[in-house]
Amino acid sequence: SADFSTETERTLAIIKPDGVTGNHTNSVKETIINHGFRIKEESFIQLDEDRVKSFYAEHSSRSFFPSLVEYMTSGPVLIMVLEKGNAVADWRALIGPTDPLKAKVTHPHSVRAICGLNLQKNCVHGSDSPQSARREISFFFKMTSSGHASKHDEL
Ligand code: RTP
Ligand code: MG
């Protein structure tokens, strides 16, 4: 029966360039569906430097930032809006720790343990809070009054 105790929520997921190139797109989407998420929007895009710098602005002073920008622009990504109850926390739990090498030990069934290569090339992104999710979804998609989203690029 339906769980009415948890409010429906949306989060932003990204299959990063290493995930796309490594042919993990279909298996990750299957995992998403099997865990009860609905994929409300999806778009296969190539990010440019400015877009990545803006998306990851919170990390702009970190030493790994230039390398992160290079990585995230190295090939196409699949951005998705996922929906279910508790979507933000549940997607973060499903992807596992940031470092896939640690994930392999502590969360061996997580997406990053299975698909990630190293601390940087970790296959997927997930919004870290409901506030981040709202910011990140509107960063990529423009929501209409009917609740549908369209890519900013298409407007
Ligand atoms: P994300 O934002 O991509 O979902 O990842 P996260 O919350 O688990 O990790 P975060 O701290 O936000 O880092 C963002 C992304 O930067 C790369 N990274 N490289 N020391 C490093 O070389 C390093 N640390 C982080 C990863 O791609 C990480 O997902
Ligand atoms: Mg993060």
UniProtKB/TrEMBL annotation:
SUPFAM superfamilies membership: Nucleoside diphosphate kinase, NDK (SSF54919)
Q: Where is the active site?
A: H125 (pros-phosphohistidine intermediate)
Q: Which residues form the Nucleoside diphosphate kinase-like domain?
A: 8-148
User: Its catalytic activity?
Assistant: a ribonucleoside 5'-diphosphate + ATP = a ribonucleoside 5'-triphosphate + ADP; a 2'-deoxyribonucleoside 5'-diphosphate + ATP = a 2'-deoxyribonucleoside 5'-triphosphate + ADP
Q: Name one GO biological process term.
A: CTP biosynthetic process
Q: Which UniProt keywords apply?
A: ATP-binding, Cytoplasm, Kinase, Magnesium, Metal-binding, Nucleotide metabolism, Nucleotide-binding, Signal, Transferase
Binding positions for ATP per the UniProt entry:
K16, F64, R92, T98, R112, N122
Enzyme Commission number(s): 2.7.4.6
Pfam families, A to Z: NDK
A GO molecular function term, named singly, is: nucleoside diphosphate kinase activity
Q: Could you tell me which InterPro entries the record lists for this protein?
A: NDK-like_dom, NDK-like_dom_sf, Nucleoside_diP_kinase, Nucleoside_diP_kinase_AS
Q: What's the stated role of this polypeptide?
A: Major role in the synthesis of nucleoside triphosphates other than ATP. The ATP gamma phosphate is transferred to the NDP beta phosphate via a ping-pong mechanism, using a phosphorylated active-site intermediate.
So what family is this one in?
Belongs to the NDK family.
Q: What PANTHER family does this protein map onto?
A: NUCLEOSIDE DIPHOSPHATE KINASE, NUCLEOSIDE DIPHOSPHATE KINASE DDB_G0292928-RELATED
Name of the protein in its database record: Nucleoside diphosphate kinase
Q: Which organism is it from?
A: Solanum bulbocastanum
Taxonomic placement: Eukaryota, Viridiplantae, Streptophyta, Embryophyta, Tracheophyta
